[in-house]
Amino acid sequence: MKAISEWYPRVHASPFNIYCGTSAGALNATSLACHTSCFRLGVKKLSWLWSNLHTKHVFESSYQGMIHHLGKQAFARAQARYHCAPPFGLLDNRPLRNLLNKVLNFSKIEHQIMTGNLHGLAVTASNYQTSKSVTFYQGHKDIPTWTRSRAIGIKSQITTEHLLASSAIPIVFPASKIGHGFYGDGSVHQIAPLRPALKMGAEKVLIIDLAPKSHPTPNHIAPAPGLAMLGGHLMDAIFADTLSADLEHLDRMNNLVSTVDKTKADNLALRQVDAFHLSPSSPFEPLVERYYCHMPIAVRSLMRFLGISPSEDAAITSYLLFEPKYINHLIDMGYQDAQNRRSDLQNFLSDRE
What we know:
By secondary structure, the chain is an alpha/beta fold. The protein has 15 helices and 9 strands. Helix 2 packs antiparallel against helix 3 (about 40-50). The chain is globular, with a radius of gyration of 21 Å. Keywords: Hydrolase, Lipid degradation, Lipid metabolism.
């Protein structure tokens, strides 16, 4: 996004009028949606936020804070059954709540919608009671709600609670309560990541993925997978595999639409949707191992206690590594990847056929 913003004039509106995000992507989408009238300013603020982020801004990372949180969790579950225990989470993400309340002005979302700069914003979370993927969206009045067997869309005013819910990694962070339900990371039950954008009327979709194009081939005998390695593998599968399947489905639908008469396609509510998939050129694991030492010592101690190794369990470690040097390296990687595909991206973003 940093690279794309530089291809437009300083006061140019955003080339995107629909934003959809899940997990950390929900935070990015919401931040950018607040500044659709001035795209470069929105990207600059978001880039500044990530560049100056520390672990302590996301969760309690001191010995005192972590022990206090785990002690409260244990005490709450030792009380009588009629006492409602808080949602379980190994880490306390209240610092993230405070940060989002400070840096995001949610009232700007409705203003951008009213001025026509923003058509819709969607944040996806998982309902732990119903095991459904729930997309909370705020947008134009003509956007209808939707219901599928495992997914629903609910019109709502996006708040900090929705972002915390969408980014609440199971077991690691506590679920967030929205209405009468508890919600966690949106990737868990999201079998069709592109659905929110399509339901809101998108005709072109730029997909920014976190799964690298290729993984390095190990030059040594790999150790037997432990609990942490299996957990990281499952989390990677949750976040990446559904997107690949949804892209294949979109490609098949586009091929079908191209063979159907336009009148029939309109009657069946079918349309051609162009997609551009941008993913990292290099895996994150070597960077995680390189910048692991920048994590707070209390977090590293907890990881060692749980048997998590930075070299063998880099996948799961990457979800907890929030330090400037690591994040800035990722930003530079994304910036360069976009620049390497500049001509293709500019052609895709152009309004010309």
